[in-house]
Amino acid sequence: MCGIVGCVLKNKEVAPILFDSISKLEYRGYDSIGLATGHNNKINLKKDAGKVAEVDAKLDLKDLDGTYGIAHVRWATHGDPSKVNSHPHLNNDGTIAVVHNGIIENYLSIKKELESEGYDFVSDTDTEVIPNLIDKYMKTGLDLTQAVRKVINVIEGAYALAAISVSEPNRIVATRKDSPLIVGIGEEEYFIASDSPAILKYTNNIAYLEKDELVILDEDGVSFLDENDNLIGKDVEVIQWSPDMAEKEGFPHFMIKEINEQSTTIRNTLNEKDNVQFIVDEIKEDINKVLFVACGTSYHASLTGKYLIESLAEIQTEVLLASEFKYSASSLNEKTLVIFISQSGETADTLKALDIANKSSKTLAIVNVRGSSATRRADYTIYTQAGPEIGVAATKTYIGQLVAIYLLASLLGDNENLIEKLYDVPRYIEEVLAKEDIIKHFSNKFKKLSKVPKYIKPILSMPHAYKGLKNNFRHVEDMFFIGRGYSYSIALEGALKLKEISYIHAEAYAGGELKHGPIALIDDDVPVVVLAPPGRDHRKIMSNLEEVKARGASIIGIGAIGDEDLISKSDYNFLINSEVDELIAPLVYIVPLQLLSYYVSVARNLNPDKPKNLAKCVTVE
To answer: Where is average pLDDT lowest: 70-74, 148-152, 467-471, 583-587?
Structure first.
């Protein structure tokens, strides 16, 4: 994961711009932050473990001289979060600095060889071999560009990296393999970055670096070299996202801002209808099987796609986790449409699977980021039109993925009626958001006591100290989410959101699976969220509700306005427009669950934008 920024300016201090840009990438990693700038034949370096604001308050990261430099936010892989392990890393004499995103798989053997040649290492990272390798090769007479090429012929793994050297001032050399890296071209200012939100404030002219290509940034502009070091041209794409889209705009967190942007995401993604129709016309007669490949939230969207395509288009559909794809790859053929879903279009497991599928099948990418690797490799692309999503827990991009899937399934199944229903969904979501105070108030029941009198502590530490207290959930460590049919995937996504940002262990099950084991865990310390939209599965999910209620569970019912059965049997409920039936429920019923996870996180004094151990884009396997 991690985030990288590099910048070369003409007659302007680079540190403030580097800091502003790298701050926009904190969603990619917040274990540590560091900046390195070049000035007067010296590399200036500031770095430390901690979140951006914490480290800046201590070090004043913007106070570094120089017109060129590199910056990094880290998600630790090799070595714990610490000052010494944070990036940038230097060579032994401090004349070369490197930032790196990815994993160098053969770093131990390289490190051992360099140590035998007299190089010292101070960190536990795999990255530190890179500046020392560059140093070794430059001492043989190679320039920085040639040395970086030599390095990438030696290192193995997935990476994006950028290097500066005092011997070549006002220059950055960068490259990538599997991890993303973009190039921004402005007016007398030139950038590399892991993702476009970092630099949108300064330029929206973006070029995309391919595997093993090099980019050289200097005061005069940008040069690209192919894998054989031939100068090449690059198409420059104008990104339509505005800088404001990557700001909070008055909201306390990006997550709640992005939850509130979901109606707009739906309206914008519906504009993909003509593109989807073109794709359907191209492939419909040539496929007899659909396979979704995705990870995490995108996997849950894919499960909804399976239900939709099989019921509307009567095409056999399967769903695979991208990391498990290779075990089923041999079943693909020219009649299979393989659909890859990824917010970033850079998810490592998904891209590996896409490369395999391209050898035998038609491929379709559903992504949010234009120009990302998935869009350049797949036969067809549907864009989710969500704009930049900064919150680590996916919300509006999930909704955008669902809309893209609904369009595809509707057009494959010639179901115009469902498409018409989709245009009403933004209104239903806005009705949910208008009642978010109900969920905010309920979520406060999960608030943990910050100060407890000494004489109370022994009581609270006793097993089941809160047992049976249905008006208080501060003790809760486990929750269940249940649904059936289309609501099962909602349950899965709701449980994922809660555990991602509140750290409450949450599991989701199809209602019919309760009696096959999970019901053994139900008692009055385990709240159960029951998803019960109107439709054919309503009576059966209500039977499941009765089963868990009989075993003492507190019931949080999510259902339709006027559902008196649900209201009477739930301890708490949130009610949604009764026009929202089970077919479109995944687009609407997920919103109160997103709000629940958000407000529980806030009630527990956590930061929902920066959940521990997680980052936005998983670019290594």
So the answer is: 467-471
Q: Which of 181, 188, 163 is nearest to 38 (CA)?
A: 163
Statement to judge: residues 519 and 538 lie in one domain: yes
Cα(579)–Cα(562) distance, integer angstroms: 11
Residue 296 corresponds to which amino acid?
Answer: G
Tokens of 99: 């930032």
Domain encompassing residue 570: 431-603
- Which tokens is 266 given? 């739906």
Band (612; pLDDT cuts 50, 70, 90):
confident
Whose tokens are 């711009």? That residue is: 17
Q: Are 270 and 206 part of one and the same domain?
A: no
Per the prediction, the chain carries an average pLDDT of 90
124 and 265 share a domain? no
Paired sense of beta strands 231-232 and 221-225, if any = antiparallel
Q: How confident is the model at residue 463 (pLDDT cuts 50, 70, 90)?
A: very low
Are residues 239 and 282 part of one domain?
A: no
Length of the chain: 621
Q: Cβ–Cβ contacts within 10 Å for residue 521, how many?
A: 14
Residue 464 predicted with pLDDT over 60: no
pLDDT (tens digit per residue) in 400-459:
999 999 999 999 999 999 999 999 999 999 999 999 999 999 999 888 765 555 554 454
The predicted model scores a pTM of 0.80
263 and 381 part of one domain: yes
Does residue 472 sit in the same domain as residue 529? yes
Q: Tens of pLDDT along 44-62?
A: 999 999 888 899 999 999 9
Measured in whole angstroms, the distance separating CA 226 from the mean position of its chain's CA atoms is 29
Digit-coded pLDDT (tens) for 556-573: 999 999 999 999 999 999
User: In Å, what is the CA distance from 48 to each residue of 4, 25, 69, 87, 607?
Assistant: 16, 16, 17, 8, 20
Instruction: For residue 445, indicate whether it is catalytic.
Output: no
Predicted confidence (pLDDT) at residue 249 exceeds the cutoff of 70? yes
pLDDT at 457: 47
Say if residue 220 is exposed, middle or buried (CB neighbours under 10 Å; 0-12, 13-18, 19+). exposed
Q: Which residue has the tokens 């071999």?
A: 129
* Strand intervals (E) in 117-165: 157-165
Residue 191 CA neighbour count, 13 Å, CB half: 31
Q: What would the two tokens of residue 132 be?
A: 């020392």
CA distances 247 to 2, 20, 407, Å, are 20, 12, 30
Tell me the mean pLDDT in the region 489-498.
96
d(CA 366, CA 404): 7
Total of domains in the chain: 3
Catalytic-labelled residue, pool 2, 7, 295, 617: 2
Which position among 46, 445, 497, 616 bears the catalytic label?
616
Residues 321 and 356 in one domain: yes
Q: What are phi and psi of 562, to 5 degrees?
A: 90, 0
| Closest alpha carbon to 461 in 472, 471, 450, 452 | 452
Rounded Cα gap, residues 284 and 287, in angstroms: 6
Amino acid making up residue 406: Y
Q: Is 616 a catalytic residue?
A: yes
Using only the alpha carbons of the chain, give its radius of gyration. 26
Amino acid identity, position 602: V
For residue 617, name the pLDDT band (cuts at 50, 70, 90): low
206 shares its domain with 269: no
